Amino acid sequence: MTDHVSIEGLRYAWAAAQTHSFTAAARAYGVTQPALSNGIAKLEQQLGGKLFERTTQGAAPTAFGRQLLPMIERALDELDAIAAEAQRLTQPTDRSIRMGVSPLIDPKLVAQMYSMVCDLPESHELVLREADMQELREALSAGKLDVILIPAVASMPRFAHRIISREPVAIVASHAAQGEASDGVADRSETDENKADGSMAEFEAEADASFILVPDTCGLTTFTKQLFASHKHPMNAYPGEAASYQVLEQWASMGLGAAILPLSKLGGSKAQHRRLQDNGQDVIIAYEAVWNPQSPLAREIELLAGQIAGDGTQHESLVLPAQS
User: Fold this and answer.
1) Cα–Cα distance for residue pair 263/245, rounded to 1 Å
2) What superfamily does domain 93-164+289-309 belong to in CATH?
3) Where does CATH 1.10.10.10 sit in the chain?
4) Strand pairing partners for 58?
5) pLDDT tens profile 164-179
6) Which sequence ranges form a coiled-coil region, renumbered to this chain (predicted)?
């Protein structure tokens, strides 16, 4: 055993312990699975024992790991606290809240957050950045963002999570593909809740269609794949890929395939939109705020997350993966 251990290896090990999977832990940190595996292997060599046993179900701590992983958690907490306190001491006048936003987030949520930041007891400036999920997660991990608003489709170990909004999704297809499902398309001046044309579609009845996807960066494709996986139904993916939600909807209206979109992202195409249901209940996509609980702004961010979630209070937030 050496006198020095890798901090990166410690973080990788704790992420694997929380997600029970090297693959999920690698995804949470935005690294490749081999890079994470190598980092943990080097840490195990430094510590002199194996922390995990790899199984068909994922990764399970060994007896050695069960003894050390709680100590690893405490050590990482202290390291994060040191970094947060140093930031507080060296940047005492910086009152900006740097917020990253996935393109899938409804602009109304962003507007709500802006208004709430303006109403905080102490003056703060909201600095916005829109980017893909991996970029946002990496920036949050590196301390370049204070909070991110993303679809709740993947865990970020050691960060606080709070569901702030949920909305139904719709299945989008051409009139020809839908047959006689509906007599027309909704007026696009309607609210998001009424954007679907009024008819419903059961997942099991639609699941055999060919589904058009966007690049797996904003969270929508991950959500769609998880929906199929939760039903143990193979997904028939259209061989091409749309670059935007607007194109996704347009292609569906052309009859190239079906698509799944949150109601807030429905545009004005002539495609039919039907609320997607599972056994008579709306299929829902959830959005979450994620932040570092050791951040100097953690109290303000938790207050904002509670307010935007609708309870107006500071609520205990989850500091474990919101989704596995």
Assistant:
1) 11
2) Periplasmic binding protein-like II (3.40.190.10)
3) 7-89
4) 55
5) 999 999 999 875 455 4
6) none
pTM: 0.70
Q: Which residues of the chain form CATH 3.40.190.10?
A: 93-164+289-309, 166-284
- Region of 280 please: left (phi>0), alpha (psi -120 to 50) or beta: left
Mean pLDDT of 294-305: 89
CATH topology of domain 166-284: D-Maltodextrin-Binding Protein; domain 2 (3.40.190)
Q: Are 22 and 59 in contact (CB under 8 A)?
A: yes
Is the Cβ–Cβ distance between 39 and 46 less than 8 Å? no
Cα-Cα-Cα-Cα dihedral sign, residues 106, 110, 112, 113: positive
d(CA 43, CA 38): 9
Q: In the predicted model, is pLDDT for residue 115 greater than 70?
A: yes
Place of tokens 């919101």: 322
Q: What is the pLDDT of residues 81-100, one digit of tens each?
A: 787 777 767 765 557 899 99
* 22-56 per-position pLDDT tens digit: 988 888 787 889 999 999 999 999 999 999 998 87
How far does Cα 16 stand from its chain's mean position? Answer: 18
What distance lies between CA 218 and its chain's CA centroid? 8
| Sequence-ordered strand ranges (E) for 15-173 | 52-55, 58-61, 96-101, 125-130, 147-151, 160-173
Instruction: Report the candidate in 23, 52, 56, 58 with the shortest Cα–Cα distance to residue 40.
Output: 52
**Beta strands 147-151; 96-101: pairing state:** parallel
Question: How far does Cα 42 stand from its chain's mean position?
Answer: 29
Other CB atoms within 10 A of residue 217 CB: 16
Burial class, 5, CB count within 10 angstroms (exposed 0-12 / middle 13-18 / buried 19+): middle
* CATH class of the domain at 7-89: mainly alpha
pLDDT of residue 314: 38
Torsional class of 287: left (φ above 0), alpha (ψ -120 to 50), beta (otherwise): beta
188/131 Cα distance (integer angstroms):
27
